[in-house]
Task: structure prediction
Amino acid sequence: MTGSIHRRANLIGVLASLAMLGGWGSVAIAAEGVKSPDYEAIVAAPDRSDADRQTDLRRQPAKMLAFTGARPGMQVLDMDANAGYSTELLARAVAPDGVVYAQDSAEVIERFVKDKFDIRAQKPAMKNVVHVVRNFDDPIPPDVNGLDLITFFFAYHDVTYMAVDRAVMNKKMFAALKPGGFLVIADHSARPGDGTNVGKTLHRIEESTLRQEIEAAGFKLVSEADFLRHPEDPRDAAVFHPPVPVDEFVLKYQKPL
Result:
């Protein structure tokens, strides 16, 4: 019996170590009966909209969800939720007892979102979502802490040309995560040397620049994904109507234990 207990403890330790090194999405969390949801089934849910299914074609949401490791019971902050495409997917992944805080600034809501998020929020799949209207450099309500996961999808480049103190924003995200919690960030790739200079014109950001800013807040890179990489993209055109698929990077950071 003692040997069995030790073997089980060692297995749990190995799984936990692998999860932290490679990301929760790469390892099924078998310990204590907890496992990741069926991400393909989440994406295939019949009550998702046709518009979202069109977005799926370029976003590969099942792979993205798996990379984030979102699973039931998690507390998640979705930065720049906008119309809520990713928010809804995350809400489905953490259901039934998890929660997703969907952050938008008042400026973004006024210029881009309007009532799109409110319409989506009426769906049953959004019942565990809290819409948080706060500035980017103060994105987390004071009573929210110990988050398991923060996502920041294809919008970090936008804050480079807004009145946002990105260093403060990144430190606030770092502080809101529990030790061992993850930040998954994805964006449109710019050319070497472009830095943040093309955020408003091409809606891209140089990957190395973003990495430097995120890591300055204390985050440690633990994994990166290539499922949205397109090396054929010259990265010199705006992302909205590109001549070839847009090259995009996907990074997973962790708050050290």
